[in-house]
Specification:
Strand content: 25-35%
Shape: globular
Largest sheet: 5 strands, antiparallel
Order of helices and strands: HEEEHEEH
CATH architecture: 2-Layer Sandwich
Strand order of the largest sheet: 1-2-3-5-4
Structural class: alpha+beta
Helix content: 25-40%
Number of domains: 1
Length: 127
């Protein structure tokens, strides 16, 4: 088992999601208790970590606001990249960060997911 796999499994057990593993494409997507969609993807030597917010209407406006917010917070500890992706036929706004595989630890993953959720919450309250 690779280190990212072990870290993800450890995170899953701590979060009450036993057996959390990357699929064959190196991805995992799950919902938290409040219904937040979270995901991770392995890409080379990086792990993409993201939180997603359903944007059923005005996805272009959400994306514009997210890009503006990302631009203004670019120099922070966690540079966020916004993106749009469809899940179950519904557009979702993703707030994602890139973690170097060497910086990928269970506490860092927890911190990243909390930060991204707060980032999306703040974006939603900007309306």
């Amino acid at each position: 088992m690779s280190s990212p796999d072990a870290i993800l499994q450890q995170f899953g057990e701590t979060a009450g999601i036993p057996g959390l593993v990357f699929d064959a494409r190196g991805q995992v997507v799950f919902r938290t208790e409040p219904g937040r969609l979270l995901g991770l993807e392995q890409t080379g030597r990086e792990i993409l970590v993201y939180a997603a917010l359903p944007v059923r209407y005005d996805s272009g406006d959400w994306m514009r606001r997210a890009c503006k917010r990302a631009h203004h917070s670019y120099l922070g500890d966690w540079p966020v990249q916004p993106a749009l992706r469809e899940y179950d036929g519904v557009a979702h706004l993703l707030a994602l960060i890139r973690l170097d595989e060497h910086a990928f630890t269970e506490p860092r993953l927890r911190q990243a997911l909390e930060y991204l959720s707060q980032w999306l919450d703040a974006l939603g309250s900007d309306t």
